[in-house]
């Protein structure tokens, strides 16, 4: 079975950019189920010889309980339930936000294998960008640039080691 890697995090951190990079390969197929997967997108990816299924979520706003934003959170929760591993994306340029902390608590409580990914770090010192995110308690921050591809293969190699 291909492991299912679910990308979660607050809006605008670069989840879709990473998803697009991971599923760009020639044999990537979109396997969305209409109606069931609004704001949740599936794509096949491969790093080296190792295939995986990537799931993009529309965004995670657990602080808000009504309307469209609530629906997005529901989608993210459904995606977490089907995850073999969670990639928790945060923004290395904006830095740590209160919302990241709320999401971190939720993800840790899910009990799923969790990887903390600090995005938008092109041209920045990895250790410096990652430092403030240790306090999320989600393990060693993995620093990448989804837009430029820096660190992405190393990240996925590491995530797939467990499977
Ligand atoms: P999502 O809401 O989490 O899916 O975020 P998107 O993938 O839509 O990206 C939000 C914004 O961040 C867009 O303007 C992207 O171009 C930008 N972005 C995504 N990844 C990177 C990155 O690695 N570096 C920089 N500088 N910007 C990025
Ligand atoms: Mg998106």
UniProtKB/TrEMBL annotation:
Q: Which domain of life is it from?
A: Bacteria
Please tell me where GTP 1 binds in this chain. Answer: 9-16, 56-60, 119-122
Which parts of the sequence belong to the EngA-type G domain? 3-163
Q: What does this protein do?
A: GTPase that plays an essential role in the late steps of ribosome biogenesis.
Q: Which family does it belong to?
A: Belongs to the TRAFAC class TrmE-Era-EngA-EngB-Septin-like GTPase superfamily. EngA (Der) GTPase family.
Quaternary data: Associates with the 50S ribosomal subunit.
What this protein is called in its record is GTPase Der
Native organism is Georgfuchsia toluolica
Q: Which gene encodes it?
A: der
């Amino acid at each position: 079975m291909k492991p299912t890697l679910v990308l979660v995090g607050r809006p605008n951190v670069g989840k879709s950019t990473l998803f697009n990079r991971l599923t760009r390969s020639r044999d990537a197929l979109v396997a969305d189920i209409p109606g069931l997967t609004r704001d949740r997108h599936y794509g096949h990816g491969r790093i080296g010889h190792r295939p995986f299924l990537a799931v993009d979520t529309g965004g995670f706003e657990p602080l808000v309980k009504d309307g469209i934003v609530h629906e997005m959170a529901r989608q993210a929760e459904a995606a977490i339930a089907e995850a073999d591993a969670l990639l928790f994306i945060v923004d290395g340029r904006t830095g740590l936000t209160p919302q990241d902390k709320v999401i971190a608590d939720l993800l840790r409580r899910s009990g799923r294998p969790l990887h903390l990914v600090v995005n938008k770090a092109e041209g920045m010192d990895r250790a410096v960008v990652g430092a403030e995110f240790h306090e999320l308690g989600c393990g060693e921050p993995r620093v990448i640039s989804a837009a430029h591809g820096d660190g992405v293969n190393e990240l996925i190699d590491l995530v797939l080691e467990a499977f």
